[in-house]
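Our preliminary data section would be incomplete without showing what the modeling component actually yields. Below, a chain of 176 amino acids is followed by its predicted structure, encoded as tokens that our downstream tools consume directly.
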Amino acid sequence: MRRLKLDFDVDISARTLRSRLSEWKVPSQRSIFDPSPQVKGLIAWLFCDIHTTDANILANLRSLGYDIPNLRLLQQARRAIGLRRRMLTSQVELEKEQLRYILKQHTVDKGPQGNTRSYGSRLLYTYLNSLGDSQKFSRNRIASVMQEIDPESIQRRSEEIKAARGEYNIHGPNFV
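Predicted structure:
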């Protein structure tokens, strides 16, 4: 939009431009990156065997002379191949140990009246991420470690949810 305004003194909104281009059947100028089987093999090798980041994969492929437009298209190609970014088993175990230590400090060691013992996984996730630690833990990992550390509080919360509620009678609309 800014380019049109500066070069041609045309003031037009983005929505108007999109609708006009669509009306005139002008194809979008999105970059299309269809990697060859050789490039797919290199991406898989760098990702799975060498465990490099996407930015390093992009730099390595460019240094080998492959023309890859940008990081986003490389990530799309990697996902299309079926390669997802996951943690190594050793990293998961290390993170679980750190999480166990933090959860024991903030929940179990405070006793039965500990303020975080009654927290569910969502509230505990928010609480742990608000502590200011640089480490961020996934909700599922927090729930699984909490199940190991303090299964009684999780059992108690699930029983509270299943508790029978009282009856609620409505005598009619606008009844006061």
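The longest helix spans residues 89-106. The mean pLDDT is 82. Preliminary results of this kind motivate Aim 1 of the renewal.
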